[in-house]
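Hello forum,

I keep getting stuck at the same step: I have a sequence, I want structure tokens, and every attempt I make locally crashes halfway through. Rather than fight my setup again tonight, could one of you with a working pipeline run this one for me? It's a single chain of 207 residues.
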Amino acid sequence: LALGQTARARRALTPVPEGTTVGVLRRGVIECRIDRPDGPAALARLQALAPVAALEIPVNRLAWQVALPEFQPGEQAQETCRQVEVEATRLELDAIALQATIRRADALRRSGRHRAAADLAAVAQRGLDAGCHPHDMSIAEFCWLAGQVFAAASRRRAAAAVLERGLAWVERVARDELPDALRDAFLHRHPVHRAMRAAAAEHARRR
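Reply #2:
Ran it on my machine without issues. Output:
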């Protein structure tokens, strides 16, 4: 899925054994990201797992909960992210807290609160600079969210810089970590990477 190859990702999913809840939350999140149903449908599928999440250890429950804001309306997503940030920080689950922070910035953007969103994205970016990698999110996806937030707040230099950072990460991973057979799809067919390239080109055109 991280390579942008959803068909292969679906084939790689293994059935969850009957009578166990191990892996159910993680599979649910992955299936939503593969199928990409519309927001309400994806949210309903994830929320249906709430009884399972309630029985999980905190790290697994929070990892499921932080997936919800991607599909929630802006105001609801903000509240979910706040809840995750508070508990994850208390439990020293910094990677989950960082994902919640950048998703809250995105939720603020979607709610039209562009200045607050950009200020929060800058906070999240400092976490990335300090070496924290967001949970279940590539550096490219983090930078794509931050780039959209900065652009909406008319902080064009910040947007261009973070998109450049994300694309540099994509290029490095493709060059150093992927075999030839997977490189082209990762570079040019992954939806986030394509969107970042288009946005970066638009920023360059406006300079």
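The mean pLDDT is 90. If your local run keeps crashing, start a new thread with the error log.
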